[in-house]
Automatic annotation (TrEMBL):
GO terms for biological process: double-strand break repair via homologous recombination. Residues 175-184 have a biased composition (Polar residues). It comes from Helianthus annuus. The keyword Metal-binding does not apply. Pfam families: DUF3337, WD40. One of its GO terms (molecular function) is ubiquitin binding. This is Transcription factor WD40-like family. The keyword Translocase does not apply. Residues 164-184, 521-547 are annotated as: Disordered.
Length: 690
């Protein structure tokens, strides 16, 4: 017999501040490939003929990848776990990246993925970077917080002296690139502080520097090109002409000429000495998102939202359509006689570009004269005709894999149905991080209907597919609200009526490798604790496609790492306290338990007299079987049993005149049968068994 009890809070203490979120990202595909759009490209050319060059790609999937380029293939030789909006190379072995987590990071780009420094000066998403080619210490960063910072990477790594000189605010303006350094304020007590470009009031989407790093240009939602003296952060000029957001910028090596691409579909060439626009090029039919130039700044390659890659002669205004893509173009990078093209797709392609001799491409015909006012005038000579791209296929491709674009959390709160951009529908078990069913290219809606279960479990996690993968988010204390019986999970080592907290067991599964390494390093041989930390089969995560953990670190922004790469030496301050509490103490943090209130009354028309029961409280996972046992034990008298004669009575539980199955929970009954906001009302009746 089971008695219904009143559930009480395990603790009266409530943490007032918002707790850190814990996220894990599931992966079912080839981990060496991107599964979401590629935001940025950087090429590291080999200085020796017998060595490979490298391509770095940063994706919306939250990873930076290093590709070793050979004549016939490209091999992913390292993956850097970091959400990336832009990346630039500085010197021979430093990669600088920026992210929506408001950080700028430096990496040893020839390592296996070592982050050497994290800068947290920005207050909002960091969207773009620029580097000085001949001054390998200087990098600029800009973002949505209307902030632009200029960093001296070497100074940022140098230990601070007790005294130092502040930056000189009175450097003369020089657009010929004669300066070769930047000074910054290093005498502040809180450490290295970058130079701030003063005066911006709107978001920044594009930056560019000249070779020596003394000149910086920025553009964004202000629709104007701002020019800065990067040695002091002072504004030199503002150039107006675009009618929409500026999305791409280039500076020539001397810093005299600037190219800008805008959402108004125009490309403009600016002479910074004359402080005016000297040419405008109407080439595209939609937003221009990416620009790349030949070494002598004579020609520009451009791409954007119209899916097209164009080459334009800046002097003669002659343009030619090189190729069309299936997706909008986000970034371009020159590499010898080719050009790498990144799009909103997960694949990266290299196209022939004749970067050393671009005039050669115009000899095949098909070019047109770019207008300077609007697209309609740009192709006046092509009215009624369609431009034919010069190339149909890229010379080389680094293929990605499809990303998730649609998802649905199923009622059992353990499975998530997903659909990727190739139309494949899969069923994920998020407590194990694996795909349990691959249904192929079927109807997502029909499959969702087929998998419907009449069961109600508290929502203990949330998901999204912004990274192209399935990201599972846990927030305390909500994540510890879902408890089920071990029988529902087919755990033979536990009694059928044992309760299992889904979040607690999932966290144990995610950190099993870390906990094992930690115990080994500390020399712990606690056998009892070993039994407590046993991970049951429904919570054993894959080691072939391990998920990545993302959480807010103690001081380095978002912290991301694969569960199999955690070696037990990680700083515990990088993990939320409630996650550590759950793993190390093998129990849930103090929380207020969710209870259900309901009435249990005799069924109308019952011929024998019964007892009435007032309002009862129970946990949401309580089964109807327990309610039936309670009724038989407490509400049915000996006299009533005698009236049944030799027949053994059973107690049926009903709701809205519907007989309930014994394995249903009170939460399920309330959600799918009661369907009201008032307290649940259940009825019981005695049915003799033959």
């Amino acid at each position: 017999m089971h008695r219904l009890g009143i559930a009480r809070s395990a603790s009266n203490s409530v943490r007032p501040s918002k707790e850190k979120r814990f996220t894990y990202v599931l992966n079912d595909g080839d981990d060496t490939k991107h599964c979401a759009g590629v935001n940025c490209l950087a090429v590291l050319k080999s200085s020796k003929p017998d060595r490979s060059s490298y391509l770095f790609t940063g994706s919306r999937d939250g990873t930076l990848k290093r590709w070793e380029l050979n004549e016939e293939d490209a091999t992913c030789s390292a993956t850097f776990e970091s959400h990336v909006n832009d990346a630039v190379l500085v010197g021979e072995n430093t990669l600088v990246s920026c992210s929506s987590d408001t950080t700028v990071k430096t990496w040893d780009c020839l390592s296996s993925g070592i982050c050497t420094r994290t800068f947290r000066q920005h207050t909002d998403y960091v969207t773009c970077l620029a580097a000085a080619e001949k001054n390998c210490n200087i990098v600029a960063s800009g973002g949505l917080g209307a902030e632009v910072f200029i960093w001296d990477i070497e100074a940022a790594f140098t230990p601070l002296s007790k005294s130092g000189e502040a930056a000189d605010e009175d450097h003369p303006i020089d657009t010929n690139g004669s300066s070769n350094g930047i000074s910054s304020q290093t005498n502040l007590p809180q450490g290295y502080v970058p130079i701030s470009a003063k005066g911006r009031k709107e978001s920044v989407h594009a930056l560019a520097m000249n070779d020596t790093g003394n000149l910086l240009v920025s553009g964004g939602t202000e629709k104007a090109v701002r020019v800065w003296d990067s040695r002091t952060g002072s504004k030199m000029m503002k150039l107006r002409g675009h009618t929409d957001n500026i999305r791409a910028l280039l500076l020539d090596s001397t810093g005299r000429f600037c190219l800008s691409g805008s959402s108004d579909s125009m490309i403009r060439l600016w002479d910074l000495r004359q402080q005016r626009c000297v040419h405008s090029y109407a080439v595209h039919t939609d937003s221009v998102w990416a620009l790349a130039s030949t070494p002598n700044f004579s020609h520009v390659y451009s791409g954007g939202r119209d899916l097209s890659l164009y080459l334009t002669d800046l002097q003669t205004r002659e343009s030619i359509l090189l190729c069309t893509n299936e997706y909008p173009i986000q970034q371009l990078a020159m590499h010898d006689d080719g050009i790498w093209v990144a799009t909103t797709d997960s694949s990266v392609h290299r196209w022939a570009a004749e970067g050393q001799n671009p005039k050669k491409l115009f000899q095949s015909g098909g070019s047109f004269l770019a207008g300077n006012l609007s697209f309609s005038r740009a192709r006046a000579s092509f009215v009624g005709s369609t431009l034919v791209p010069l190339y149909r296929e890229p010379t080389f491709s680094i293929n990605g894999i499809p990303g998730i674009v649609q998802y649905e959390i199923l009622n059992n709160k353990r499975h998530v149905l997903t659909k990727d951009n190739a139309g494949f529908v899969k069923l994920w078990e998020i407590t194990k991080g694996v795909v349990t069913e691959d249904y192929g290219q079927v109807s997502f809606e029909k499959k969702k209907e087929e998998l419907f279960e009449m069961v109600s479990i508290p929502t203990w996690f949330s998901v999204d597919s912004r990274l192209g993968n399935l990201s599972v988010h846990l927030d305390t204390p909500q994540c510890f609200s879902a408890e089920v019986y071990s029988a529902d999970l087919n755990i033979p080592e536990k009694a059928e009526d044992d309760k299992v907290n889904l979040a607690q067991e999932t966290l144990k599964g995610l950190f099993a490798h870390w906990l094992s390494k930690k115990k080994h390093k500390s020399g712990s041989q606690d056998g009892a604790h070993e039994n407590e930390s046993t991970v049951h089969p429904p919570f054993e995560f894959s080691t072939t496609s391990p998920p990545s953990i993302i959480t807010e670190g103690s001081h380095n922004g978002l912290w991301r790492k694969k569960i199999t790469e955690m070696d037990g030496t990680e700083d515990e301050q990088d993990l939320p306290w409630w996650v550590l509490y759950c793993i190390l103490h093998n129990r849930c943090p103090p929380r207020q338990q969710t209870i259900f209130s309901f009435y249990l009354q005799p069924y109308e028309g019952l011929t024998i007299q019964t007892m009435r029961q007032g309002k009862l409280n129970a946990p949401s996972y309580l089964r109807i079987r327990s309610v039936s046992n309670y009724a038989a034990d407490k509400l049915v008298t000996e006299k009533q049993l005698d009236s049944c004669g030799d027949l053994m009575p059973s107690v049926e539980i009903l709701c809205n005149n519907q007989v309930l199955k014994s394995d249903m929970t009170v939460a399920t009954v309330r959600a799918y049968i009661w369907k009201r906001h008032e307290d649940l009302v259940l009825h019981y009746r005695i049915m003799p068994e033959t």
